[in-house]
Write a structure and sequence with these properties.
1 helix, about 325 residues, Beta-galactosidase, Chain A, domain 5
C-alpha cells in the first residue's frame, strides 16, 4: 500500500491504495473510493484508468446514496418533495448519488485490504446524513467489496447503493465476448432519456434480445437496462459471467440477496476508439428511480445500518 503525503502529491483520481494477494492485484483511487485497476496474473478484469487522470465518468466508483437515476432530479419522501442537482444534464436526471466525486478518507489498510470512509452531509435535495464505509479486500476468491451505510442523522433517509465496474473478459471488446446473465425480467426504458417504463419477460421483450440466461454472444446488442428476478445458487448468490467466445478467459461478479437488481451497459460511446471497451455490470439494491417508485428502496432510520457486497473474480 502507498499513500501520498501532501495534497500536491495526490494524483487527480485521488489518494492511491495498492492491494496484492496471490495472483491478484488491485488499485483503489480515493475519489469515489473507485476501483481503478483489477488484474489477475497481469490480465485486466476491469477497464483501468490512470492514477493521474480524472476518472472517466463513473468507471469503478461507489454509487451512494442512490445508484442509477432519479428522474428529473425530483422525488417525494415521507410527504415532502425534494429536488436534486441534475448531474446527467443531457437526459435531465440526478445520476449515481453524491459520493462519486468526493475524496474518501482512510480508515484502515493492509497489504490485501483497505477501508475508506465518506460522510454524505445533509444538503439541498438530500437533507439526510449518511456515513459510508467501503471495504475492498483481495482473497483467493477475487476482490470483495462491502459498502456499509449508517444513518447518522435525526430523520429516516432513503438509500441505495451499487458499484460501477466495466468488466473485461479478455482480448477485444464487448462485441467479441459472451454474456451469462441469470435474470428473467428486464426493466424497459424510453429510448431517449432511459426513463423506466415497465418490467418485461426477457424471453419476450424485443424478440429475446435481452435474454442471456444461457450464455451467448453479445455481438452488437445495445444494453443499458436494469434486470431483476435473478436466479441464485444455494447460498443466495447471483453471478454474471463475461467470457471470450472460445471460453479461454473471462471474468465474473457475484452478489447476495441485498442486491435484487443489476444494471448492464454495453458502454456505447460516439467516439469509436473508446466505445464498448468493457461491459458495465452494476449490482444494485434498488432499480432506477427508486426514490420515486419506492421499489426495493432502503429506508434507514436514525442509527440504522445497511450492508451490501459483491465479488469480482477471474474465470
Amino acid at each position: 500500500m502507498n499513500t501520498a503525503s501532501t495534497r500536491s502529491d495526490v494524483p487527480l483520481s485521488g489518494t492511491e491504495y495498492t492491494l496484492t494477494f496471490g495472483d491478484y492485484t488491485a488499485d483503489i483511487a480515493g475519489v469515489g473510493a473507485s476501483l481503478r485497476t483489477l488484474r489477475y496474473r497481469g490480465r485486466d478484469l476491469v477497464v483501468p484508468f490512470d492514477a493521474d487522470e480524472v476518472r472517466p465518468a463513473f468507471r469503478g466508483a461507489v454509487l451512494a446514496p442512490w445508484p442509477n437515476r432519479v428522474v428529473d432530479g425530483r422525488y417525494t419522501f415521507h410527504g415532502t418533495e425534494y429536488e436534486l442537482a441534475l448531474t446527467e444534464p443531457k437526459r435531465g436526471h440526478a445520476l449515481h448519488g453524491l459520493a462519486a466525486w468526493q475524496e474518501w478518507s482512510l480508515v484502515e489498510a493492509g497489504e490485501a485490504f483497505v477501508e475508506l470512509a465518506f460522510r454524505v452531509e445533509a444538503q439541498s435535495g438530500y437533507p439526510f446524513r449518511i456515513d459510508l464505509i467501503a471495504r475492498y479486500e483481495l482473497t483467493a476468491d477475487g476482490l470483495s467489496t462491502t459498502i456499509r451505510a449508517t444513518n447518522s442523522g435525526r430523520a429516516a433517509a432513503p438509500y441505495g447503493t451499487g458499484p460501477h465496474p466495466y468488466l473485461v473478459a479478455g482480448p477485444g471488446r464487448v462485441d467479441d465476448w459472451s454474456l451469462e446473465l441469470p435474470a428473467r425480467a428486464v426493466l424497459t426504458v424510453t429510448p431517449d432519456r432511459l426513463i423506466p417504463v415497465d418490467l418485461a419477460d426477457v424471453e419476450l421483450e424485443d424478440d429475446g434480445a435481452f435474454d442471456f440466461v444461457a450464455s451467448r454472444p453479445i455481438d452488437s446488442t445495445f444494453i443499458d437496462h436494469a434486470f431483476t428476478e435473478l436466479e441464485r445458487d444455494a447460498s443466495g448468490l447471483a453471478t454474471v459471467r463475461v467470457t471470450t467466445h472460445d471460453g479461454s478467459s473471462g471474468v465474473g461478479i457475484s452478489w447476495g440477496t441485498e442486491c435484487q437488481w443489476v444494471q448492464i451497459h454495453t458502454a456505447d460511446q460516439p467516439e469509436p476508439s473508446i466505445s464498448r471497451l468493457g461491459l458495465a455490470v452494476e449490482p444494485m439494491t434498488c432499480p432506477p428511480d427508486a426514490f420515486n417508485t419506492g421499489t426495493d428502496l432502503v429506508v434507514l432510520d436514525p442509527g440504522e445500518e445497511h450492508t451490501a457486497g459483491w465479488t469480482i473474480f477471474a474465470l
